[in-house]
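New to this. Help decode both lines:
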Amino acid sequence: MSDSEDTLSLSSQRHLSQVNPSSPSARDTPVVGRRVVRDVNWRDAETFRLLQIKRDIAEESCRSRFNTNLWAQVSQRMHDSGFQRTAYQCITRWRRLVQRYHELKREYRNSPQQVRTWPYYQEMEEQMEAAERRANLPRRSATGRRRG
């Protein structure tokens, strides 16, 4: 593993360092009955935390694709960090980040001089490359033998 895989990008670390999980913005979400009322919009701190959690779980599970159980873990870790997000919200946010990443990647390819200003670009690029590497690793069969 390279150093870049072990740590978040500098911009991610900077945004995460500004988050205090016990702060009112992270903890005080309105509750109606049993249902948590949550903003539709994601703040940068939430998004960077989602990216960090997704990276951690992907590395722990050695999976390039996530299933429902893994997204439930992401949601639980978001909750543990003070962000009330459901698995569905996390999946939706991730898909939109991936979509935007691919759009920007095409734009940057067409005009390389364009400055990459999207705050999540570096982290998304690292995660996409790591997912590609994990997808290309040989897998073990049920008998423990490597499959191509």
